[in-house]
């Protein structure tokens, strides 16, 4: 007999006509794909595929069986969805990953609130320092920055707009910044998770301006450390306005915007998760995140 795994392997090869591409799509070793195809052909007593040059071509039996294969897989998916809907419990384990910029505050609150609502759920929260790669076969990720080149489903949730900020005492001591060219005279506190693309500012009347690189740069891989360094007089840096607004509610007067008419590069906020049928716990959490996006990110 054969099972759904063999059918999934055969359907993937029929769609791509490549064993290598199909193995990559299903996150399986090529040898496993070959074994599943052979098992299916042995169980059916028919050869379904033949190799021609570098492609896999379906035989007449392969074309015929493919129609039934799709129907079986569709029915299995529908049955799985129906059973998931039948059970209203959100339980099991869910791994979630979040970019450092949103981990403290907004995202952690969503996770804790979700767990409080669904008491039978176990969640593992991870800091995501790089865009998720093909090894992420389950779980949900929030990424901030440019849109990642990924095999995962990618939804844009919103945008974080940035400005240059410093501590008021630091700016009083070393002088306020009145034009982007003066940035070079200050120490720069850089968040390396944003990428090494240099500093580019935009003004509605003057357009884009790329300041000369600062004479001194302090690079960190943590948004929390970056803001702390700026607040403690370590220099100035690009910080999302939304992050500053949250901080100022609890620590007023600790950050002052430089060049308020100039905007730094915007950072996209993306929701990433694998293609295909998701467990109910993942579906419900994804919907929760969609509805929890702050309005300021959408404008």
From TrEMBL:
It comes from the Bacteria. Residues 2-59 form the HTH lysR-type domain. The keyword Transcription regulation applies. Pfam families: HTH_1 (PF00126), LysR_substrate (PF03466). GO terms for biological process: DNA-templated transcription. InterPro entries: LysR-type_TF_proteobact-type, LysR_HTH_N, LysR_subst-bd, WH-like_DNA-bd_sf, WH_DNA-bd_sf. Keywords: DNA-binding, Transcription, Transcription regulation. Signal peptide: none annotated. One of its GO terms (molecular function) is sequence-specific DNA binding. Belongs to the LysR transcriptional regulatory family. This is DNA-binding transcriptional regulator, LysR family. It comes from Marinobacterium lutimaris.
